């Protein structure tokens, strides 16, 4: 129960996850719109800032209080409709905009992925046999509305970024005729006549309401004629009774009403049902007067145990592994759902044969059922397992080849995993198109139902397997169950933040105790803008310097939004003019941040924050370049850590303390520009800079393996 302003109350089902996300979002948007705060959640109404922050007017303060109050109402409405598990996603914020964006990105992924998902669902939707026409049209209309909403939102964002007319971008709409076309193309052939009628209607009369009325009226005609629902494999009924007791053990009422209802003077409730014994309309098999077909048959039991759902007979002749299960009803239905031990829906409906005649039905799922069977003259309840698993998958050689192909693709280290996903999706689309093409050919060849069933099931199995392996998560899960994939595990052996190191202790001692100091990391590297991933640089080689905070958590430090570019230049200019001139502006900024800092306003107080460089990062060539060492690794003194010569380093396996660079011998070598030093290190001009050698094991050790 969500409570609005005043005495208004709204019943909103709490958000549990992706399964009820569309319904929850629609309901919450309606409530937010009723409270006049939906524009805040969508980011269309932002916090009004005063023109002069030092002297805001009363009107500006009132507008700010009004906005914050509306934002609190929106945030309270959203937070009050979340389960405890989902609420963990937004515990770190009180902003309704951030809450809404977090939930949208979690359950609808990114903008592009969200549009792709809705568009795929809209373009591939097919009306299921058990689904009513009104419900199907409503689902298609919902997807159509979501598509328009996403396209309009993206158009609004693009127009805002470009400074264009936002109102014109919002008015862009997908033609409703596309929705009409998709609905007509995704329904069964029983409505083919209506498709031709719809094409002849004037364009002004082709509305969604008119199409819904036309299709729903046709559906009612088919139901009255007993045609609708004949292609469904399982239907539901309120109660199914047998031999004096219902299957759940309750007493059975008299069948006199059913017998009376079959009279001519009264309306027959079974007029649309066909008896499977005499093939006549108007009654069920148990009411049929033709009992000759039942003579000579052995009745297994006068009463079914409470744990049995069907009676099955195994035929000695024919295939010994073939079983035929039939409930004995004209339409296959059951009201005892608890007899199904488990149930799993198919990704796509499969055609199966019936026991009564040479016809085909569409099965929508598979699972375990309790079967009362006779073994050696004794009745017992058995569990029939008909589920897809890794054992049944291995029986089909084509499926094994698909799984082996995916395994071979993953084994190729030079092949990106995104290409594997692309191959799986392409093969799935190819198999789906091939299945549709072969079905059209089989219809022209007039094959028997057994042939159509066999060929259709092959493609259905392949498509089901490809869809079960459609994502990398499902593929890794499948290979893990086969014990062919061992997932790598990460072990944390220790950590040492920058605040616990000696470098930070030395830096802090240079500032008063009451100052706020934040550590900075400087990173330098060259890249080729026309070939950023290549190993060789050309004439467009650019040097880039980045800065980031060393005190934020790793999950935030690795975000691109927290790695800032502070200096860009042509690498050839650095070679021509030197490091001092290239980095002069950057050095001035760093000196200002160390000595003057910046001033921020917090709780009506001015606070000074200082920034100091902890260390300079880069690869071997990059560090040698900006630290003033030789850039040739073939030089006699190529190492910036020690003064060992190239000849000594080839035979030296133990560290020689006398060769390690120190501040004293570094100053001596700078004066003569010897021992691999080209120029003085410009970073020493920083007032608070602490000299420290840090070696990266990634560059020094792992690259040598």
Automatic annotation (TrEMBL):
UniProt keyword terms in alphabetical order: Metal-binding, Zinc, Zinc-finger
CCHC-type domain sequence ranges: 274-290
GO MF term list: nucleic acid binding; zinc ion binding
Region of interest: Disordered: 244-266
InterPro entries membership: PolX-like_BBD (IPR054722), Znf_CCHC (IPR001878), Znf_CCHC_sf (IPR036875)
Any Pfam family matching the protein: zf-CCHC
SUPFAM superfamilies: Retrovirus zinc finger-like domains (SSF57756)
Name under which the protein is recorded: CCHC-type domain-containing protein
Organism: Photinus pyralis
């Amino acid at each position: 129960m969500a409570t609005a302003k005043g005495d208004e109350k709204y019943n909103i089902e709490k958000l549990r996850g992706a399964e009820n996300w569309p319904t929850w979002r629609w309901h919450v948007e309606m409530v937010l719109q009723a409270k006049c705060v939906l524009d805040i959640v969508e980011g269309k109404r932002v916090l009004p800032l005063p023109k002069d922050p030092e002297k805001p007017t009363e009107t500006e303060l009132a507008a700010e209080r009004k906005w914050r109050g509306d934002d609190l109402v929106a945030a309270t409405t959203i937070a009050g409709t979340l389960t405890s598990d989902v609420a963990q996603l937004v515990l770190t914020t009180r902003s309704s905009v951030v809450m809404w964006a977090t939930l949208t990105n979690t359950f609808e992924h990114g903008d592009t992925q969200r549009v792709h998902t809705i568009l795929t669902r809209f373009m591939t939707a097919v009306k299921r046999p058990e689904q009513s026409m009104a419900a199907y049209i409503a689902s298609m209309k919902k997807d159509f509305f979501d598509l328009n909403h996403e396209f309009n939102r993206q158009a609004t964002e693009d127009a805002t970024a470009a400074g264009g007319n936002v109102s014109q971008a919002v008015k862009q709409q997908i033609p409703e005729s596309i929705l009409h076309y998709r609905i007509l193309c995704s329904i069964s052939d029983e409505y083919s006549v209506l498709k031709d009628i719809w094409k002849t209607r004037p364009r002004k009369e082709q509305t969604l309401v008119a199409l819904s009325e036309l299709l729903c009226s046709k559906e009612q005609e088919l139901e009255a004629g007993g045609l609708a629902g004949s292609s469904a494999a399982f239907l539901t009924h309120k109660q199914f009774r047998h031999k004096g007791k219902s299957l759940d053990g309750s007493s059975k009422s008299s069948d006199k009403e059913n017998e009376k209802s079959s009279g001519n003077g009264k309306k027959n409730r079974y007029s649309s049902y066909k008896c499977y014994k005499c093939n006549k309309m108007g009654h069920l098999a148990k009411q049929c007067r033709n009992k000759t077909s039942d003579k000579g048959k052995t009745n297994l039991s006068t009463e079914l145990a409470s744990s049995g759902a069907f009676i099955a007979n195994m035929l000695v002749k024919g295939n010994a592994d073939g079983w035929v299960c039939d409930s004995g009803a004209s339409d296959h239905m059951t009201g005892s759902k608890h007899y199904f031990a488990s149930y799993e829906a198919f990704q796509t409906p499969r055609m199966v044969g019936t026991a009564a005649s040479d016809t085909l039905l569409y099965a929508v799922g598979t699972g375990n059922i309790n079967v009362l069977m006779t073994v050696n003259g004794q009745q017992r309840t058995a569990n029939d397992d008909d589920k897809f698993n890794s054992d049944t998958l291995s029986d089909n050689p084509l499926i094994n080849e698909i799984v082996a192909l995916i395994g071979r693709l993953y084994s190729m280290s030079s092949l990106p995993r995104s290409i594997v996903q692309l191959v799986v999706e392409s093969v799935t689309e190819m198999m789906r198109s091939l299945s549709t093409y072969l079905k059209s050919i089989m219809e022209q060849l007039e094959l028997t139902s057994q042939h159509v069933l066999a060929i259709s099931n092959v493609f259905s199995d392949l498509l089901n397997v490809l869809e079960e392996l459609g994502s990398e998560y499902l593929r890794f899960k499948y290979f893990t169950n086969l014990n062919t994939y061992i997932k790598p595990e990460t072990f944390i052996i220790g950590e040492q933040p920058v605040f616990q190191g000696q470098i930070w202790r030395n830096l802090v001692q240079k500032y008063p105790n009451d100052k706020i100091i934040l550590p900075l990391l400087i990173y330098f590297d060259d890249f080729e803008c026309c070939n950023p991933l290549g190993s060789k640089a050309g004439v467009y080689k650019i040097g880039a310097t980045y800065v980031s905070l060393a005190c934020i958590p790793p999950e935030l430090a690795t975000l691109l939004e927290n790695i800032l570019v502070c200096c860009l230049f042509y690498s050839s200019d650095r070679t021509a003019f030197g490091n001092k001139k290239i980095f002069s502006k950057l050095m001035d900024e760093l000196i200002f941040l160390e000595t003057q800092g910046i001033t921020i306003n917090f709780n009506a107080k001015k606070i000074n924050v200082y920034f100091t460089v902890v260390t300079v990062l880069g690869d071997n060539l990059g560090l040698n370049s900006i630290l003033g060492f030789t850039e040739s690794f073939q030089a006699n003194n190529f190492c910036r850590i020690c003064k060992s010569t190239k000849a000594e380093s080839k035979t030296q396996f133990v560290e020689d303390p006398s060769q390690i660079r120190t501040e004293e011998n570094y100053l001596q070598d700078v004066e003569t520009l010897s021992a691999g030093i080209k120029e003085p290190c410009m970073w020493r001009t920083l007032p608070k800079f602490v000299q420290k050698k840090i070696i990266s094991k990634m560059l020094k050790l792992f690259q040598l393996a």
